[in-house]
Design brief:
Elongation Factor Tu (Ef-tu), domain 3; six-stranded antiparallel barrel; mainly beta
Length: about 100
């Protein structure tokens, strides 16, 4: 399973721009499909392992469900933001590829 979309990088409310918690929201049109297709592969807190790619940089991470908005949230760690010069408020093209148990490290 793979999704490609454009989305804005945002900072968790009430934190400064140097805070560690930056996210990209996976569009809610994918929420139910992702939830159903990955039911057997979800981990703690409903997280799902993915390979994320942004600006030709790929890394293994997890997305987390936000049941209030019926979206998944992708945290973007500081090392990725710095390496690819990503800024909160800007839109980026992102690809998520869902990992199965035989792909996990």
């Amino acid at each position: 399973m793979k999704y490609t979309f454009d989305a804005e990088l945002w900072i968790y409310p009430n934190l400064t721009t140097n805070a560690a918690w930056h996210f990209i929201t996976v569009p809610n049109i994918f929420y139910e499909e992702i939830k159903l297709a990955n039911y057997l592969f979800k981990k703690s807190f409903g997280s799902i392992k993915v390979i994320a790619t942004i600006n030709n940089c790929s890394w293994q991470t997890s997305i987390f469900p936000d049941t209030k908005t019926k979206c998944y949230l992708l945290p973007i760690k500081k090392s990725i933001r710095v390496a690819k010069n990503l800024c909160a408020g800007a839109k980026y093209n992102l690809t998520l590829e869902f990992m199965r148990s035989n792909q996990l490290n």
